[in-house]
## 1
Amino acid sequence: MNDLRKIVHIDMDAFFASVEQRDHPEYRGFPLVVGGKSARGVVAAASYEARQFGIRSAMAMQKALMQCPSLIIVPPRMEAYKEVSLQIREIFHEYTDLVEPLSLDEAFLDVTSNKKCIPSASWVAQNIRAMIFERTGLTASAGVSFNKFLAKVASGMNKPNGFTLISPEHAPAFVAALPIEKFFGVGKATADKMHRLGIATGADLLRFSLEELESEFGKAGRSYFHIVRNNDERPVNPNRDRHSVGTEDTFDQDLHHRREILARLEIIAHEVVLRMNKNRFFGKTLTLKVKFANFQQITRSRTVGYPIRDADEMISITRHLFVGVEIPPRGVRLVGLTVSNACPQKAVGWRQLTLPFAEPDLS
């Protein structure tokens, strides 16, 4: 374990929604979401007032309105969010050049040796939070620890406008008590499988050997084995280059009907677009992943001549990829979408208004 590194994770609080409430004082204190108002619109970000109604990002806007009829809906202003993000990154670089942005609103910083010669990483984090508020009027939460995993978990412990330190001497007890859902790389499907194996916390995970975890979870099992033992030596990488953005969904029950599966894919498409906007990543290749009930999987890809920018474009391409997929009698257990083949930023502004093919018959 390397206890000499000092890692800070900064995460802005409800970033898109907070920018809107800052720029529109009349929205402050009211439930607000950023997203599309159309019938197929989804929530890109929710204010903390909206979260009290159970509203979360990637939720269908119709469902959000059912949960809060007085909800304020504002369209996204990506250029405004990008401008604030650049302000925040300028602050980061006043302290260290070892800055690894994860998206517009969060980043890792290695402040082991920092430009202001501040001996305490906690002081650095608190100074950065104060400067962010002074210059932007927005709050940020910070986590500090000796590795990236713990720093990121810590930043989410006391949101909003919070700060958490996980020191080397407290880390083993902290990780032992940590719910398995908080571990890096553990999504809903993996968490469900872990619960079936009797793994609910880090302490439960510690009882499993490397061989057992690799047998159950493949390559990810090795990661879980080391993370729970606080062996996370990943460096803060200022030159991190994202090659793709995507997400997938494992169904609670295998699906057999094409239209039902396509409906799930449409939801995934909206979520991928949210992630692309958040990460300022746009690509020209869309890949569909389908895993069947027998765990066999296939992928289908299509490359277009323009950057895929919105959900309608992605859904149209997805429908054409999906039409060639045969659904076996046992059904489908997982589907996913990934955008790759990144476009230069200067090319992203151009949009193709119509797709060069007709809608397929999915009946």
Note: The chain has four domains: 7-14+79-165, 16-77, 171-227, 244-348.
## 2
Amino acid sequence: MTDELLQLEKLCVRFPVRRGVLQRTVGWVHAVDGLDLSIAAGETVALVGESGCGKSTTALAAMGIVPAASGRVLVNGKDLTSSRGDELRTARRRMQMVFQDPTSSLNSRMTVGQIVVEPLIVHELVERDRQRERVGELLSTVGLGDDAIERFPHEFSGGQRQRIAIARALAAEPDVLICDEAIASLDVSVRAQVINLLTRLQSELGLSYLFISHDLAAVRHLAHRVMVMYLGKMMELTDNETLYSSPAHPYTKALLSAVPIPDPDLELARERVILAGDVPSPVSPPSGCVFRTRCPIAQDVCAEAVPEWRNVGGGSAGHWVACHFAEPPSSVTLRGTSIESRQRLG
């Protein structure tokens, strides 16, 4: 056992690009490239970035659904990438996943009771005569009643279906929940309810979360640390407060400038960071820094050398950045109003 429940070490995921009648491999999609991340007990680490940056692939690789090209996935010190058979099944039970769309992740032909009881049967966690009672307890934990047991997923709202998916994940008694855009398909009011549910479950059960989202407002509310990804690579990693008040990477600053501020005057006054061009192809990523083709401060060295993953200081757990020129600013000011003060006012 280690202090870190989940550890991703130099994780790389590649997908082959095949063409022709014989489907020869002509290239590789660099989906995740050298990712290092650890999650401690009771901690929430968020993965953020644009669509296609490798967030969901990281989650699937951590679960073993997608094979890793290299690197290791450790759960409670057990290496999932080299485990087989019963050892793999035991290790994977400690880590469960909540998917983005509960409509497609729940079997429409099964009742809620059948869906939630399945992990109990597969992992032999509860005696047969106690299974219905345990299902009722799990549904109660996520805010649903016993009357849901005999009903089907299509009879529930989107938020309720996501609660059912969470109950199914909790049935395996995991240490880590991987939430892959778990609130993205929900209405704003329902989204807040699910976030509050996840916060309560973490407090009551001591769960750890790998929270994948593009909703930076939700991430700020829920996460302890935040990692920013771009084109499969790590851009920045630090604690929540430091990232939002003093971002060091140009890409992080651009993401934060796109977050709406609930104050018309401040929203009109601030200066947005507009990135030029499109995201490069992951089949042939740029040399050096992968962000250099869109970076407003890029120089010649950015094309020649891959930036070192370094700690620029600050933050309760360090402030790690992959940028040749990143320095930890005391605050980020746009037309006289800092990000920290704007979000506090908002």
Note: Confidence is low (pLDDT under 50) at residues 331-346.
